[in-house]
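Reading a protein record of the kind used here takes only a little practice. An example makes this concrete, so a full record is given next.
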Amino acid sequence: MLQTKNLQFAYNNDLSFSFPDLGCGAGESLLITGRSGCGKTTLLHLLAGILHPSAGEISIGDTLLSSLGGAAADRFRGACIGLVYQRPHFIASLTVLDNLRLPAYLGHKPASEKAIGELAAHLGIGHTLRQLPDRLSVGEQQRASIARALVNRPALILADEPTSALDDENCASVIELLTRQAAEHDAALVIVTHDGRLKSAVKNQVELSLQGR
């Protein structure tokens, strides 16, 4: 599902990264770890199509990301990539339900309220759909963030430090939820983290190393 080859990226200040080749199949999970400064966030942004590599290739399914540009890249990201952030980001003036509708709108897909309701119920946040995000607990916000990432049934789920701010109990709950949902939705899941607690939860792992500048 996800494949990278000879991936490199350079910032304007000459900070550069070379990444190992990655592969993650449908329904599988991949944990990417490493110390601060090794390029984890840069890699995640490359996989999401937010940054463009200076060299190398990223393929999601049969699509080569570098072959897309402009509106086509935005549509592909909205339809095929789900993002889970370290700290959930919502539009505060919209209800949880309307926040969950947004990925379908941005991905030019029909928003099925029934499907959204079923997903929310499955994640234990069905009772929050008519509430504003700031009325939710931290755990409910995290589950709502996961629901939003899954609404479009993306081929690829990217999670950026999803557990670093959580205690051990909530950490275990979130990682179990992410891996189970990826398997059930037949999506590739890539988790980028420095949280060592996740190493026992995900079998496939890649550790990035600090590189010369």
